[in-house]
Design brief:
Length: 79
């Protein structure tokens, strides 16, 4: 399994951070992504992009509460 995780500030003054995640298994749902990322900090939301059929596009966004936790997740899962 390969993850490619990119960081993007949600708002410059906001400590929260969105992580764009791709290349996870098609069978994964939001709860599985949340479980994986919650090892690194508080997950505020998870979104998986889906086709019209409901099938995962194997990419999405995870919003972590703390910028340092997002950086830890990125370092651990990137690549």
């Amino acid at each position: 399994m390969k993850f490619d995780v990119n960081m993007k500030d949600t708002v410059k003054s906001n400590a929260k951070l969105n992580l764009f995640v791709k290349n996870f298994p098609k069978t994964w749902n939001e709860e599985e992504l949340k479980t994986l990322f919650s090892k690194y900090g508080t997950v505020e939301s998870v979104f998986i992009q889906r086709l019209e059929t409901g099938q995962s596009k194997c990419n999405g966004v995870v919003l972590l509460k703390d910028k340092q936790d997002a950086a830890k997740a990125k370092d651990a899962l990137n690549g």
